[in-house]
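Hi support team,

I've been running sequence recovery on a batch of backbones for a student project. Most finish fine, but this one hangs at about 90% for roughly twenty minutes before it completes. I'm not sure whether the input is malformed or the queue is just slow. I've pasted the C-alpha cells below so you can try to reproduce it. Let me know if you need the job ID as well.

Thanks,
M.K.
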C-alpha cells in the first residue's frame, strides 16, 4: 500500500479541523508538515451551514460575564455538564474569538462599528456574534479555508476518507488508513499526532439539519480503536427545520434567532401553543420546544407546525436573515406574510469521544476536538451557539498543548498495526449491497425507535434490528467504497446510541423516556462506553 508521513494529521475540515491546522502550523515547527484529510471538498462540513452564531464572552461586551455564560450553560446541560470545562471554555472565549478576528473572520457590526451581539434561546444576555446576518458558519469556514490554503506547511487530501486508526498494542495511535475516493485506493498515513475533527452523526436519523457527511465516522473509528466514548444517548433535535414535505429528509434549519426576534409557533388551527409548555414560550430551551412541537404534531396527526414571523418587519427579516428569507422564497414562502412549515430534526451530537479541552483521549497520540468530542461542555443539552465556541477553543488549546509535545514520526510498527494493514491490503468479496436503501432503513429505525421520545420497548426493537443489519452486512473492516464505509460506521454508532439510551433510565435534557419521565437525581452521571470491555461503564 502507498504510504506517507506527516508530523500532524487533521481529519476533517470544519471549524475545528481548519482552525486546529492553522494554529498548529502557526505555532509549531513541523519538519514533516501537516496534512488535512477531508471526506469531500475543503470546508464542506456542518460548520459551513451554521447560521445563528457563536458565543462570544468577550471584553468588548460589557453587559456580559463568564459567570453568566457559565450559569446559562450549566442550566441547559441539566446537571451533566462539567463545571470546570464550562468555566475553562468560557474564559478562553475572549482570547480565541479575538484571534479568529485576526485570522480574517468578519463578525457583523452595528452602525457605530462595534461588534453586534444578539440573543438566542436560554441565554440571559445578548452574547451571540454572527457573520453575514445568518451565515456565520460560512463566514468562519471561508476565512479559515483561505488562511489554510495560503499556508505552505499544510497539505490537503480532499475526497479522502479516514477509515481505520492505526493503534498499536501499547495503546498509541501511529496513523490512519484512508480511502481515496478519486483513485479507489487505500493509503497509509503515519503520524505522531492524529486529530479527529470529524463532526457529529445527524445523518443517523431520517430527518436532520446535517449535511450528508455527518455519519459519525470519527466516533466509530475511535470506538473501534479502543477510545472511550461518552454520553452517546444525548442527541439534540432542533425544533424548527423547514418541513416542506415528509419526503424532504435533509432539512434546512430555521435558526432559533428568528424566534429570538419574536416569531411565534402556531399549530394548524393558527393557535399559538408554546405557553402550554413553558413560561419561556418560544425561547424555552431547545429540547422543551422540540417536545412541544412533537406533541402538537401528534395531537393534530400532522407532519409539521408553523413558525409565524409576519409580526417582524419584512425589511428587518431580510437584513437579519438573508439566507433563511431567500431559501423560503425559493420555495414559494414569503416569510414576512406566510407562516413557515417547521418540524424537529436531528441536529447535534452532545456525546462523543471522551476528551479534555486540549483534545487528549485515552489513546496516546489520538486527539478529538469539535462535535466528535465530548469534553463535558454540553452535558445533556447544548446551549445554542456553544458548539462553534467549543470547536475553536479546543482547537486553540490543542495547538498550544502540542507545541510542548515531542512529535516524532513512528518508524517502528508493531504486529497489531501490521495486522490492520494486511486487512486493508487484501481483497474482499465483491458482494453487492443496496447501501442507499440500507441507510434509509437504518435512519427510519433510529427516528421511529430511538428519536425524540424513547421507551424501552422501542429501544429494544431498534437494538434487535441493528444487530440483524450488522450480521447481514459482512464488512466490519475493509469496504468497497465510501458509502459502504459510512453505512458500516452508522451501524456502529446507532447501536451505541441505543445501548446508552437503554442504560439511562430517566428523562434529562435531550434524552426523553416516556417510561421514565422524571429526572432521577441519583441516576448515572455519565455513560462511558469502550470497545474492548464491550459493556457500558458508569460514572455516578
Ligand atoms: C444547519 C446547522 C446550523 C448550525 N448552527 C449553529 C450555530 O449557529 N452556532 C453553533 O455554535 N453551532 C451551530 N451548529 C452546530 C455546529 O455547526 C457544529 O457543531 C460544528 O460546526 C461542528 O464543527 P466540527 O468542525 O466539529 O465538525 P464539522 O463542521 O461537521 O466538520 C467535520 C468535517 O469532517 C469531515 N469528515 C467526517 N468524517 C470524515 C472521515 N471519515 N474522513 C475524512 N473527513 C471526514 C467532514 O467532511 C467535515 O469536513 C449548526 C449545525 C448545523 C448542521
Amino acid at each position: 500500500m502507498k504510504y506517507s508521513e506527516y508530523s500532524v494529521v487533521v481529519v476533517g475540515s470544519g471549524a475545528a479541523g481548519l482552525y486546529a491546522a492553522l494554529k498548529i502550523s502557526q505555532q509549531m515547527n513541523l519538519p514533516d508538515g501537516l496534512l488535512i484529510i477531508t471526506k469531500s471538498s475543503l470546508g464542506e462540513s456542518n460548520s459551513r451551514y451554521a447560521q445563528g452564531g457563536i458565543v462570544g464572552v468577550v471584553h468588548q461586551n460589557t453587559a456580559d460575564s463568564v459567570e453568566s455564560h457559565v450559569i446559562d450553560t450549566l442550566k441547559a446541560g441539566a446537571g451533566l455538564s462539567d463545571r470546570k470545562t464550562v468555566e475553562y471554555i468560557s474564559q478562553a472565549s475572549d482570547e480565541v474569538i479575538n484571534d479568529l478576528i485576526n485570522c480574517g473572520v468578519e463578525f457583523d457590526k452595528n452602525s457605530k462599528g462595534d461588534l453586534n451581539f444578539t440573543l438566542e434561546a436560554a441565554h440571559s444576555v445578548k452574547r451571540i456574534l454572527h457573520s453575514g446576518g445568518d451565515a456565520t458558519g460560512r463566514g468562519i469556514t471561508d476565512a479559515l479555508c483561505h488562511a489554510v490554503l495560503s499556508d505552505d506547511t499544510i497539505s490537503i487530501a480532499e475526497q479522502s476518507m479516514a477509515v481505520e486508526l492505526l493503534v498499536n498494542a501499547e495503546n498509541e495511535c501511529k496513523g490512519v488508513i484512508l480511502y481515496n475516493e478519486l483513485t479507489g485506493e487505500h493509503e497509509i498515513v503515519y503520524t505522531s499526532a492524529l486529530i479527529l475533527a470529524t463532526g457529529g452523526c445527524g445523518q443517523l436519523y431520517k430527518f436532520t439539519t446535517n449535511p450528508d457527511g455527518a455519519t459519525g465516522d470519527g466516533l466509530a473509528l475511535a470506538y473501534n480503536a479502543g477510545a472511550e466514548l461518552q454520553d452517546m444517548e444525548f442527541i439534540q433535535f432542533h425544533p424548527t427545520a423547514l418541513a416542506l414535505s415528509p419526503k424532504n429528509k435533509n432539512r434546512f434549519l430555521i435558526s432559533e434567532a428568528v424566534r429570538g426576534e419574536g416569531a411565534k409557533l402556531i399549530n394548524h388551527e393558527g393557535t399559538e401553543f408554546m405557553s402550554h409548555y413553558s413560561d419561556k414560550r418560544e425561547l424555552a430551551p431547545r429540547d422543551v420546544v422540540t417536545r412541544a412541537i412533537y406533541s402538537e404534531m401528534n395531537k393534530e396527526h400532522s407532519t409539521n407546525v408553523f413558525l409565524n414571523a409576519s409580526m417582524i418587519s419584512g425589511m428587518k427579516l431580510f437584513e437579519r436573515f438573508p439566507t433563511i428569507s431567500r431559501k423560503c422564497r425559493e420555495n414559494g414562502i414569503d416569510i414576512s406574510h406566510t407562516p413557515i412549515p417547521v418540524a424537529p430534526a436531528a441536529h447535534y451530537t452532545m456525546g462523543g469521544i471522551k476528551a479534555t479541552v486540549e483534545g487528549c483521549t485515552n489513546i496516546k497520540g489520538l486527539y478529538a476536538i469539535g462535535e466528535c468530542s465530548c469534553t463535558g461542555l454540553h452535558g445533556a443539552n447544548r446551549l445554542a451557539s456553544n458548539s462553534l465556541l467549543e470547536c475553536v477553543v479546543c482547537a486553540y488549546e490543542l495547538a498550544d498543548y502540542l507545541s510542548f509535545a515531542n512529535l516524532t514520526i513512528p518508524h517502528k510498527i508493531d504486529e497489531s498495526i501490521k495486522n490492520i494493514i494486511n486487512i486493508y491490503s487484501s481483497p474482499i468479496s465483491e458482494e453487492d449491497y443496496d447501501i442507499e436503501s440500507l441507510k434509509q432503513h437504518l435512519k427510519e429505525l433510529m427516528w421511529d425507535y430511538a428519536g425524540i421520545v424513547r421507551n424501552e420497548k422501542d429501544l429494544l426493537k431498534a437494538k434487535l434490528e441493528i444487530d440483524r443489519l450488522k450480521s447481514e452486512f459482512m464488512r466490519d473492516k475493509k469496504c468497497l467504497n465510501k458509502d459502504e464505509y459510512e453505512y458500516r460506521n452508522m451501524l456502529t454508532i446507532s447501536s451505541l446510541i441505543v445501548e446508552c439510551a437503554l442504560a439511562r433510565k430517566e428523562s434529562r435534557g435531550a434524552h426523553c423516556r416516556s417510561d421514565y419521565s422524571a429526572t432521577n437525581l441519583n441516576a448515572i452521571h455519565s455513560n462511558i462506553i469502550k470497545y474492548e470491555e464491550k459493556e457500558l461503564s458508569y460514572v455516578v
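--
Follow-up from support: It reproduced on our side and the slowdown came from queue contention, not your input. Residues 482-503 form the longest helix (22 residues). No action needed from you.
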